[in-house]
């Protein structure tokens, strides 16, 4: 974003006097929310000035209505905004909210925006209007008003379907999109800024597994799919959620929008692609990366490294392995390949030039591609789009300026000259035709996407004067594409790459491991059955889980854990990977002795202890957590009786624990303070030790979870004690823990003695009371 535009937006904010902020806080009674009937709203607060309010979405100022103590009559859906003024100076933060009055129930999140009506609808300057000089072309950026790049603050409320308001406050509003700006129902974006009083939206908008704080969001009208199915872009993006794709995707959910109290229709809420979007996913500095779009348009950073990459591809013979390896140092080839697989399956006609790609700054970094804007896929403009041979489209060397100019197909054309890339492109496509892109899987996702908006569609269609039968026509096209595309695409690949006949491959892994197929899919015990081409070998790699070793293969005569399987022989291939449990000789000797999952100052840490009599070579040993993340220990030896601490950040840990002699930093994952499983394994994957805990919430801000006595079985929860405070990393656990265990053991011993006495008394009493023979 240009600094001048941000400055312009901030200058539009009214000046705020420096007064007692608490005295100027306003509140509404009843609070904004969902109501069946009209409401009388009282405004309280603002004792040090006059309160002005609006009900048309506009920002309040001294020209607005002044609150006189009588209730504000809210008879229809309304955005109420109020602020305190001392003369012409705003003397406190604005307060606002949305009252949804007698609105139809909806399963969707409601996005309500209140913004000055003139900003959007003024015939001369309104952003939703063509303006006095719309230009001769829809793409003329200096023409219609909707091409503006300005930002204006507005009240934004997010209300879940159960009526809960999950965000309320002022955010920046600006226009968004390409050609879709010309549609009457326009897309826009929302920006959190400190100057507006809301730096971010703190709520998991896209579910518990996604992010929970957002500074930038897009409210999208469906893009090129507007007036058709409305769900293409979100549907296609959602097909690639499996972690094997390794693509950066925008989360999405359907929402209904109200603009200044008026129903504005169905949209999709999306994350916005910008440096912060990438920083949230890749642990990189948002200010130290380059983000580009189209051919060489710089959104952030520089195009220098991309030009270097492009020149290498143009000037290098990629059939040579050494050049291909060098290219892999400049770009993430697997990431690019999977993007091409998805776009080819989608038949996305806008994927040539409409692309996003990025690279962190610094030596050794690589370019990655972002899946973006796929709403022209799935036959948007074609009657039978599933039949299209998209391979020809993406390998066209002399395409038109749009949609597939020569520069947009350059990378794919050059990479396909390399046998390794070509084989991966073919086999991974077939992998996904058996899984994520199978007719069954895509049909199921399609029906779910349709169901997510079906209740809202009659109102949406009525709002924008559209025909239900035309929407249904495009929905049916999505269903047909999902059902028919796999068979056509398979034949396109067979012909284009001369794949030969199909070979049936049936894979499964025994307990204790999995198979990596084509350096792509993970195949476990549930197995995978699919058809691959006789002329394209597949790759298999057997991977044991921690605590297991690979034994061998059933169905093929090869003992190597990684192999290339030729499919020329005309037969069905049934293959199983076999694994066996493996325990290290020092299992139970080297143990996890203490865990600190909540140390705000030092960061999370854990402690290993060698309670045996033999030194342990820790080289290549690794730790795992609940999410199967790994941390490999560096070369080193743990002597008998010694302790070793593994922490997250060296600087923080050293400040809090300067007395700890031996520790390793760099633990890449935190430790859950309530529910965690930590495993320790040797370099070859043999089991050494593991603990699991489930703790109730702790009142203390810092605590450690410690084994009470070094000789106890650390797999038993009863042998551990929760201790408030900083813990004892690098040293024996404190003596009072040992006394606690002894006390606990004595307690149970006394209980046992008591029970025994009661039993003896009971037996004696029963004998005494037994009737005597007469």
From TrEMBL:
Gene3D superfamilies for the chain: Lamin Tail domain
Keywords attached to this entry: Membrane, Signal, Transmembrane, Transmembrane helix
N-terminal signal peptide: 1-23
InterPro entries cross-referenced by the UniProt entry: GH29D-like_dom, Lamin_tail_dom, Lamin_tail_dom_sf, Spore_coat_CotH_CotH2/3/7
Parts of the chain that traverse the membrane: 747-767
The LTD domain, residue ranges: 577-699
Protein name: LTD domain-containing protein
Source lineage: Bacteria, Pseudomonadati, Bacteroidota, Saprospiria, Saprospirales
